[in-house]
Amino acid sequence: MSSLFGQTAAAANSNTNNTTGDISKDIALTSPPEDGISDIKFSPQSEHLAVASWDKKVRIYEINAQGGSEGKALFEHEQPVLNCCWSKDGTKIVGSGCDKASRMLDLASGNTTTASQVAAHDAPIRCARFVDIPAQQSQMLVTGSWDKTVKYWDLRTPNPVASVSCQERIYSLDVVGSLLVVATADRYINIINLSEPGKFYKTIQSPLKWQTRVVTCFNDGTGFAVGSVEGRCAIQYVEDKDSSANFSFKCHRSPVAPAGTGTGASTASAASNNNTNVYSVNAISFHPQHGTFSTAGSDGTFHFWDKDAKHRLKGYPEVGGTISATDFNRTGGIFAYSVSYDWSKGYAANVAGGVNKVMLHAVVGDECKPRPKTGGRK
Prior knowledge:
mainly beta; 378 residues; 4-stranded antiparallel beta sheet
């Protein structure tokens, strides 16, 4: 029986026990951005993908069952766009960026090009999400900025409803249910219960030793994953009673071949040299059905993991450039990843003609399914 992108169940199951995944059938998005891709997000209600870029634009594409794509809408900012997000009903898309503004396109109105400003900060807005606040009649927007504040916005009014000051610049935030997690410079992670959105429920230092790149909440809202520039990921639960389940692990690293051995040096000889290239973990996405998750990084690879079994499910070959952002669609049948410069080596490495593309990977077979429980520790 044919599945997404025309792959068959038999073909999918043939590699079930192989820990190396296949990207040969991944399909490129049509007409990608002209500059660095900063964020990608699927609609929670349809097969539409929003793509934010350094070319100052947010593009919305429709994805069909064969993996084909078609541009459906586009709106512009005054400066590079760093983030995009959808409303829960899939009718509104918000871009946020270096022009210190968040701008919203209301697709339900039939408007496909002109966005209205819905938020403002004193510095670039790094990230934004739609949130449900108890006692509020409609969804609100929460924004995190390099001005060290988190602000809540009622889209019907021009001023923020509330503002929370953080210790440092905000690098990443995510929301699931009543859980809002805000990661800042200097490795602070602030946890907010949206029942009391104006204060921190808890503040911790990241369990990782170096700069935080991304935080992503578990599907059930009990915790979050943290990725850093040091090639590590941490699994962190909110409540102290679950702290025994916290752990971190190395990922997105590769051994360095000893000097003078040439490019043909074996992995074993490289590993014996005890030198390792360490890459940033740029993106973490949770599968919407299975609760497993992906990591992707500056090494140009992505991996699927089972946090409960503490096990890597699949690792994938290098894709031809750094991976800057990832997302699963609403069913978990498509995994999208952007291949684009991630600024990990500064502006000097942002060469003209660099690759900028979004790839669509069909999730088939057991690629993202958790390992079966075999008794013992749960």
